[in-house]
Design goal:
Helix content: 40-55%
Largest sheet: 3 strands, parallel
Strand order of the largest sheet: 1-2-3
Number of helices: 4
Strand content: 15-25%
Distance between the termini: 14 Å
């Protein structure tokens, strides 16, 4: 299971509630094998508040925090509309394409 979160204080509060439920399921034995990861989406690196929040999440969630952060990109919407993977879409920065290609592995899916 993975949880996607936008780096916003209100959304982070909702995320905290979701993680409490997940931990309760694991700790109670109802789903002791449940694994989870946190992916930051729509990150604006120019925002000091978002940068600080992402760093706090990185420290707090450690191994459950996927090290890639995905910014807001028009190209992502465009490539989805055309049915083309973002790493093959013209104009996608190499590091963005590589991050998207590595995501399944980071989530333990590959």
């Amino acid at each position: 299971m993975f949880e996607r979160v936008e780096p916003d204080f209100l959304k982070a509060a909702g995320l905290a509630a979701t993680i409490r439920v997940i931990k309760r399921l694991i700790d109670s034995g109802q789903n002791g094998e449940l694994k989870w990861k946190l992916v930051v989406n729509r990150y604006k690196s120019t925002s000091k508040e978002q940068t600080a929040l992402v760093e706090r999440m990185r420290q707090q969630f450690g191994a459950n925090f996927v090290q890639f952060t995905f910014g807001e990109r028009v190209g992502l919407t465009d490539c989805l509309a055309r049915g083309v993977p973002i790493w093959e879409y013209k104009g996608t920065p190499t590091e963005v394409g590589e991050a998207w290609r590595a995501l399944p592995s980071a989530l333990g899916l590959a």
